[in-house]
Design goal:
- Helix content is 46%, strand content 15%.
- By secondary structure, it is of the alpha/beta class.
- It has two domains: 9-75 and 219-237, no CATH class; 81-184, Nucleotidyltransferase, domain 5 (2-Layer Sandwich).
- A five-stranded mixed beta sheet has the order 3-2-1-4-5, sandwiched between helices.
- Helix 2 packs across helix 4 (53-71), helix 4 packs across helix 8 and helix 5 (119-131) packs across helix 6 (148-158).
């Protein structure tokens, strides 16, 4: 088995009525481009394959988290200058908060969807980012004036989860890079007009973020703009590439 393949293909695609290649293609299209499930259904229908949009939805729910999980081991190391922020995502008619962070070169560090915007949520997010193997321990974290961030940082330092010399900068313009990066995720959420549940939203967003990291060239030996190499990498994760 290819060293990039963390999954068992027969297990992942067991009982599916369509070929794994078609399933992965539909999931990849939906997660990379601002398309609705019905638009993906139409694109597949043009190729003479009748797949209902609800089936594509189920595929995304099943395989988007697997894409996120699979690509983690292949991410390039990030640097120690972090820029963190949260953006709004509508879930079941209510606004939830997607915490996101990038380094000074625009590489995604991590992300977390929460129902609340408080110190507890910020702390959960930073703990998740600090545990990610591709991330370096931050030298500085740039955030906005949200009072939740200092509290979260103090707690993490007290728990020795974050070094004492890590600086927190609450200067709005310093996090412009992460605000710009939000757009790549927000444009993908618009065609769906919101999510119907927090679990559904989280599973889908994991796929959006993973595809965004692949698109930005964060995968080792897979460069930004190398579309065919990116496609082959994704297929290899699911055991489809030779």
């Amino acid at each position: 088995m290819d060293e990039r393949t963390p999954f068992s293909q027969p297990l992942l695609f067991k009982w599916r009525h369509f070929q794994p290649e078609l399933i992965v293609m539909c999931v990849r299209w939906y997660l990379r481009y601002p398309l609705s499930y019905r638009q993906v259904e139409e694109l597949v229908a043009e190729r003479g394959l009748p797949v209902d949009h609800t089936t594509i939805y189920r595929w995304v729910q099943d395989y988007a988290p697997e894409l996120d999980k699979g690509c983690r081991a292949h991410l390039r190391p990030t640097n120690d200058s972090w820029k963190a922020d949260e953006t709004h995502i509508k879930v079941k008619g209510r606004w939830c908060y997607l915490y996101r962070a990038v380094d000074s070169e625009g590489n995604t560090l991590d992300f977390l969807l929460t129902a609340k915007r408080d110190a507890k949520a910020a702390k959960r997010f930073f703990r998740k980012a600090l545990k990610a193997k591709h991330n370096r321990t931050p030298r500085v974290i740039n955030v906005d004036k949200n009072p939740a961030y200092p509290k979260a940082m103090d707690d993490l330092k007290a728990e020795e989860f974050l070094p004492e010399n890590c600086a927190l900068r609450q200067v709005k313009y310093l996090k412009n890079l992460v605000e710009q990066d939000h757009r790549s995720i927000k444009r993908l959420t618009r065609p769906g007009l919101g999510f119907q549940g927090l679990r559904t939203a989280w599973r889908t967003i994991r796929g959006y973020e993973a595809m965004n990291m692949i698109r930005k060239g964060q995968i080792k030996n897979v460069e930004q703009g190398a579309i065919q190499s990116q496609v082959k990498f994704i297929e290899s994760l699911f055991g489809l590439a030779a």
